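TL;DR need structure tokens for one chain.
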Amino acid sequence: MPGLVGFSGGRDWHNCSDILEKMQQAITHRSFYVNDELFAKNTVWATQSRSFVQQIPPGPVRGNSCYLWFHGELYNRRDCPITPDGRFADSQITTDAQWFLAAYENYRQSDQPWKFLHPLDAQFYAVLYDERSRKLHLINDRFGVRPLHWTIWENTLVWVSEIKALLALPGYQPTLDRDTVEDFLGIRYPLQDNSWFKGVERLPAATVLTWDEDRATIKSHRYWSWDSVSVYEKLPDRREIVEELGRMFLNAVERRCLPGERLGIPLSGGLDSRSLLAAAVGKASSPPETVTYGQANCDDLLIAPQVAKIAGAKHHWIEMNSQNWLLPRIPYLWEMDTPASIIHMQFSSLLDWVSKHRSFDIVFHGDCAGRFDGRQFFPAEDFDKYLCRQLNLDGFARSPQHHKSVRERARAYFESLGSSCYKLGLDSRTRSFISKDWRMGAVEGINVRLPWMDNQLQEYWYALYSTGEDLGGLYYLMLLNRFPKLFKELPWQKIGKPISEVVVPLGWQGDLINLQRKIWSKVERKLNLNKPASKSNNSSGDSSVLREFTDYNGWLRQEPARSLVTRLLQAPDALYPEYCNREVTLQDWENHLNGEDSFDRIGTVFTLELWLQQLFNGRYRNGIDEPIKAEW
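>> reply
TL;DR here they are.
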């Protein structure tokens, strides 16, 4: 994917320009990428690969002996002071990179040189070299979704947006971080800022990492934290919360709709993507286009076209089935850098379609909306329950020791975050798991924006969460209040009915409904009538049965997945047994083929083996390099 590579040091290295060029080539995956000039000044060597489609400016941006490589977007720079005395940028500053460099120059000699970063609502990472101080800074936004990795190798600071670029360093032989592998196999993504390579770290969120070129020393500065957010002691009036949440959400979407851009929204039968479409209508330069991906007759496919029609959006459907779901994902696994379970790479179906049609340039992603329903919050004493059940460590762990190791590491990480489930969700799951969609989008030159991660929205909800009071239902009430046409009568895929039928209104009507539900619940239990309808994701001859948008359990048992998984897991030269017991894995696979549904557990080790082959043996980087023959 487009990104930054470089190093400062390398005094004993020969042909530094060749090394830098190989690093640049390692992150260049498409013909529309543009490779910038190789920059060399003192001990600093830097360059970037950028997307012509995304129109990322060439680097570095220069000014007053400063050099800036900037990847990302600033959504509110016009509202942020560019000087310590509160002045704003003039009309001569027209790009985010220009604003960033000018703000640094204005603040650099103040007592808070990085204060200009505090209010930025943004997604970015940057490398800034100040020749006057002979210091180089690695910088990212407050949530750090876009990954920038760094390491010290042979007394040299090295930074890469993709860890595979490290393979170009002289004598570098990667060693996998076993904690990261254990976390991946245990909960599907690594914890903290560990990377897959031992000794290589991901830049923490809201961080400036400073390298002193002369002293060869490193210093880290966290410029923003949740402690700076003013929290409520008591929950405000719920009507006020519903109104304020809606106002902030609309503003967040508007900030991310820029003139001349074509907007696309992956539209499911859920609420989060629908909320983005509802808010974007009238804000985007042109009507958004929507895309639904999933198997035929899934409930998403029944609901999403209705939503798009009411919103006036052109709608597309991408069918996913046993024949097309797997193979296109394999090159993305290499190109997006660092593994995400191939089972959860369904976003690639959209991107594969976009790469052919180029119907839009920007995608709105609904990540983080789910936390606004309040149900993802849990008290600190329930962390083990969250880890073992919701993240399913109990189901993924390969042995008691594996379970214990991941649990202890996760517990220590949770405690380092002040035992806050709110911080845990953003700092871990969003950055390590959901970020896979942003990374895949970057490969195809698509900007994936996350309106629900807007600074004001997140600070407001964190301030409410900190009261410890129940926030359940407020998100749904906001949707009904702001966008009744899309939410009052159309069903929610998760429950098969509109949220207007289950959400509890505010005031005396809500109190009455709660009382009625409590009484009926007691009656149901007494009469043993509480039998919820079951919902299956398995293929069925009855096309009227609602289904999940995928059937991974069934698809893994069918070709081509069945033979490919079998070949990789049974291969005598397989690499995964170094990290995961072969006998346990093969028994898991046999059990799955015999009807025990365990697609997620199989998916992690299958993904690991694919990526290890890509990394160490160069196989499968461009997909399957040999025919898949059924062995059954």
